[in-house]
Structures are given as C-alpha cells and as structure tokens.
Amino acid sequence: MRNTRATQLVSDVLRTYARPLSLQELHEHVQERLPRVAHSTVYRVVGRLEAAGRVRRVDWRERGSRYEWAELPHHHHIVCSLCGRSVDLDDADLGFSEERVRAATGFLVDHHSIELEGICPDCQRS
Amino acid sequence: MRNTRATQLVSDVLRTYARPLSLQELHEHVQERLPRVAHSTVYRVVGRLEAAGRVRRVDWRERGSRYEWAELPHHHHIVCSLCGRSVDLDDADLGFSEERVRAATGFLVDHHSIELEGICPDCQRS
DNA sequence: CGGACTACTGCAAGTTACTTGCAGTTATGC
DNA sequence: GCATAACTGCAAGTAACTTGCAGTAGTCCG
User: Fold this and answer.
1) Which residues of A touch B112 (CB under 8 A)?
2) Tell me: the pLDDT tens digits for A61-112?
C-alpha cells in the first residue's frame, strides 16, 4: 500500500477527530486541505485502510457507515436523549464478553456493536 | 390506518416468519399470495406499521434494514457472517442489564440495541 | 345499501449513497 | 532516471430506497 497524499490526509483526519466519521464528513475534511480529492478516492482509501486493519468500520443505526481510527480502544457510547451528551463505555462496563456469547450460542463472535440511549445524570435532576 | 389486503399480508408474513426480514424478502413473500403488490407498497406499509408500533426495525451491518413483528419479546440477534443464519439472544444471555449501565454511568437507559456477527457452529466445522 | 371522502396502491421516475471503468498520474524499487 | 503497477479524478453505473401521480378501494356517514 503506497503512502500517498490522500492516504496521509484520510489517516490524519481520522486520528485527529478520534470519532467515527461518515464518508461524506471524511471527504469534506480532506478537501479542506486538498480540494481536488474525489469522493471515490476517499472511498477507496478507507477501503484499503480498513483492509489493512488501520481503520475500523462502525455502523450506526440511522447514520450509515462510519469509519474510525483503529488504534482507538474498542468502546461504545451512551447518548443522552435530552441533551445529546455522550459517555464512553467499554465491554466490561456492560458485562459483555464474547466468551459469554460463545457459551450461550456456540457462535464465534467477530464483531459486535452496542448502542445505548438514555437520560444523563444532569438531565435526570432537572 | 386502514385494514387493507397489503397490510394484512405484510403483518401475516412478519408474524409467521418471526425473524427480521428485509424489504426484498417481505415483498417476495407477499407476492406469493398477491402478485400485483408493488415494492413501494410494501415499503410504505412497513413504514406505517412501524409508526404504529406494530413492527420493529432492526438494522444489520452489511445487510441493511430489516423488519420484525413487534410483539415478539425484546431480544437481539447474532448473525452468521458466512451463512446468514441468525440466533436470538436476550439480555440475560449477554450479561446485559440497564442497572449495570446505570451503576457505571449514572444514565437511565431507555433504549438499547445490540448487534452481533460471528461464525455459527456449523460454519466453524467446515 | 350507496355515495363521498380520502387513505392506499401500482407504476414509473427520482434520489441517494455507494461502486466501478478508464485513461492519466505518481509512488516505489531497481 | 526509469519501468511498472498502484493510485487518482472524472464520469458513469448500480442498487436500494423514496416519491409523484392518477387511479383504486376501505370506511364512514346517511
């Protein structure tokens, strides 16, 4: 995999924002620094980065496919349905383990996604 | 909401199959009993049923939106990434509880969605 | 019943996001 | 440098989803 300007920019953007970005958002941020980059280039670059394990793909209900820098530790989010604030959660916080699923179903888990919505402590008080 | 032939058929199919079906699959099954039903009709019918709370929408990574009968008890699915077979899981199987999230974050959870993908026992053998 | 009202439907076309073909460009290894 | 094959921009192609429209058919009165 060649070290091209597009690859550098896509990687930089994902590292900088440290959250899942849509292809659209990625493209816009990349274009701020190199306007002639095409949508299809960003598309193929994230595809390559994902195949190389440097980027992780995250699918958000309603929000379509998104991509995040794979070095960020695996985690989930709970979003406050009133104020929109979000808090990170890891599997341990949720009591989740792939072993447990394996014991219950026999499936070998290779991907999971957990989305939570609720009311944050601040909003509960008011 | 009127009780039309299309609505009845879509409801019947979802009740009968008791698993998440894509728009495509729904359309095919409905057409077996009433061939002139259009894709767009099925699309609008599930939309209406969802708005009425009679159908629940489930989003599967890679596989797009699916719909299932909402009276089925709350559960999640693990889908085999090779053969597409799915198995139901409830929160207890996953060790999940909203209480646990509350303890970790202070959030009062009012909605959660969990999607799993892996290799089923059969496909692991081959 | 029967007619009026309007939700619902089929068809076809529109939209959107994603994907690919192609010819020109540019990293990379020698 | 130079060859070569990966990469790129552009434009066009898919596929799934969504909508406009004119006709159809549930439902609600009377």
Assistant:
1) 114-117
2) 555 788 999 999 988 888 888 887 878 899 999 999 999 999 999 999 988 8
Distances (CA, A) of B8 to A38, B14, B31, B33, B40: 47, 10, 13, 11, 16
Find the CB nearest A107 among B110, B114, B119: B119
Contacts of A119 by beta carbon, 8 Å cutoff, 6+ apart = A80, A81, A82, B107, B108, B110
> What pTM was computed for the model?
0.84
Q: What pLDDT, on the 0 to 100 scale, is given for residue B63? A: 62
State the residue for tokens 């359309």: B27
Specify whether the CB–CB gap between A118 and B109 falls below 8 A: yes
Task: Tell me if A116 sits within 8 A of A78, measured CB to CB.
Answer: yes
Q: What is the pLDDT of residue B111?
A: 81
Which of A91, A99, A116 is most worth mutating to test chain B (most B CB atoms within 10 A of its CB)? A116
Chain B residues touching residue A97 (CB < 8 angstroms) = 95
Q: How far is CA B101 from CA A92, A94, B108, B113, in A?
A: 10, 6, 8, 13
Q: Is any atom of strand D within 7 angstroms of residue A52's beta carbon?
A: no
